[in-house]
# Entry
Amino acid sequence: MYQFINNGSITSTKGFKAAGIFCGIKKKKKDLAVIYSKAPCTAAASFTMNKVKAAPLLLSKKTIEESEKIQAIVVNSGNANACTGEQGITDAEEMQQFCASGLNINNENVLVSSTGVIGQLLPMDKLRIGIPAAISSLTSNGGFDAAEAIMTTDKKIKSFALQLKLPAGLITIGAICKGSGMIAPNMATMLAFLSTDAIIETSLLKKLFMETVNNTFNKISIDGETSTNDMAVILANGLSGISIQEDSVEEKIFSIALNAICREMAKSIVSDGEGATKLVTVNVRNAKSKIDADLIGKSIANSALVKTAITGADANWGRIMSAAGQSGADFEPAKVSISFNDFYILRPNYSLSLDEKVASQILSSKEFEINIDLGEGSEETTWWTCDLTEEYVRINSDYRS
Amino acid sequence: MYQFINNGSITSTKGFKAAGIFCGIKKKKKDLAVIYSKAPCTAAASFTMNKVKAAPLLLSKKTIEESEKIQAIVVNSGNANACTGEQGITDAEEMQQFCASGLNINNENVLVSSTGVIGQLLPMDKLRIGIPAAISSLTSNGGFDAAEAIMTTDKKIKSFALQLKLPAGLITIGAICKGSGMIAPNMATMLAFLSTDAIIETSLLKKLFMETVNNTFNKISIDGETSTNDMAVILANGLSGISIQEDSVEEKIFSIALNAICREMAKSIVSDGEGATKLVTVNVRNAKSKIDADLIGKSIANSALVKTAITGADANWGRIMSAAGQSGADFEPAKVSISFNDFYILRPNYSLSLDEKVASQILSSKEFEINIDLGEGSEETTWWTCDLTEEYVRINSDYRS
# Structure
């Protein structure tokens, strides 16, 4: 149905170019990316729910709501342009203008994104030189450079692409993203940019992208925090010549593939979380409602006690039960069963089959599943989380220098 | 109006006796307490909101709902009797019976409480010997022994008492409590027990106690977790001969004093939080509504990023803003000002007066205030939190041995 491409990126998609350069916002590392499609794109985007929204988000939200098409995204790292007042808005608008004029397109076809330190004005002198420089280095294999240029505390470059085989031919979805480990107002943010060459109307693209974001990026937890700058965008330039229609088989396949690439991106963000050493999939099963399932998934994924137990490879099912219990979801504790991968440590009526050795072995691995079955209904969900380590505390308590 | 008593305890109150002994649930330390009033008491209690409620809570909740008067509380540490199914209920009932018959009172006059490891059955053989032994060592200065016997990971004994001067004479409120640092299903829980010799009807006592619990114990955060065993109880035996009537001056004074002692208890729990080195008071001011104020207070008090910034004495106001922004409260970010004690780091319109040196000095102290003024309305609230340290992670990721 779909296949991931080795070393794929946002520029694996037909008609997309990208660049990532150093323009002087950071001390040494790449800090400015431009993503460009040779054809105008339908687009969909999801923005942070945080009440404190950075200037580029406010501008991009307005742009995407008012524009028919998007053709480019300009992104800087090292400075979030958040809590910067009126000047912040002016600066974001200037980034948009510089990018548009460099690409010879209209302002309303350009989205702007920033990540980095909060509360400081952008060094516009550097961006005025940097943006044209980035545009002049746009290439059709620049995805990795762009992925590198949007990193903050990320250790790994996050770049993906996959191809869908449809009767009418091939469609590509490419993507880059950056984690966080957390939102750190002075450091990080979650950003995700996707490209596709499918022909897909804005309304359908929005519907599919929102569903996917809810099932992937909105179900990961590093430390339960939401950044002022979080943003996910998909651009569809139609250059494959293949159309995705509502309620078609193609829509189904496209949706599954979109979920798959976003799930990989979300997991890559969690496993590269600050201080994280383990990637944990939390499956909630047989809940009364979707809402209950998600309340429990979120509570377990966010629990400092569950996350420190994972750090210690401690098969502490009591912490998982307690996290579920404080979630607000409706369930009967005595009906719950809990397993790590396929190994059950708790069955209904508090019947324990705890073999600490087996459980601890599973919890010592780099990647495993926590499954909680509520025995109440048939709704389910999946969340992803990581361990909470001393390294997380060290990174985040370091005095800014 | 009121005065704290040096070395006060739950037995500072007329007619109250207590005992704390070792009965063998823990390895060495005291693990069983009995609190007793020579006169039957009106009572009010608050129980955990966690859906997973330990057996003693279920029993005590039922008992206090159905009984006219309470005269004793039996509490063990080292085992939470939580997630123990039917046998857990039977065991809690047997604790109640043993305590009642030893004191020659009815079962329905006894509350039961437990804290410690989850998912293990109580060692009833030890409690059958221990409860009569504790009863035989009840004394009118046994408050400290009882306070010690309810400890789990607490480093300090938590015991308080104060006296109110009323025109009609003196009323005492005494108390013991235990923290947590967190709820740890295999370790800790928040328990608070209070005594008073005021004459006060159940309905009024309930009203005042619930208000107080909401303003104190429900506004502290170590790690945002709620235990399966959390419980706060107040017993009023009337032996002062002084009556507190609804809508009287006495009610006002009693309510203020009750708040004061619970606030001290709540603060003692936070400052003895696991790995905590700092006690931070979070004042939210000029919110549109009480609900908004509390959403913001809670979000800041719970934020891993704010708490690690406090650990590093990092004047990272961006993290405070971001925590407020993700709280769900309604406010305009540009109107916010933030101060540490009296030192403003942020004024409206993102005007910064950040002197890192002064700010860092304040954040390096053992106790300070974070004040966030929303400039929206006139509602306010206070929360208490602590820093998040590597020690917290160490304690909670240690493999249970």
User: Anything to note?
Assistant: Chain A has a mean pLDDT of 92.
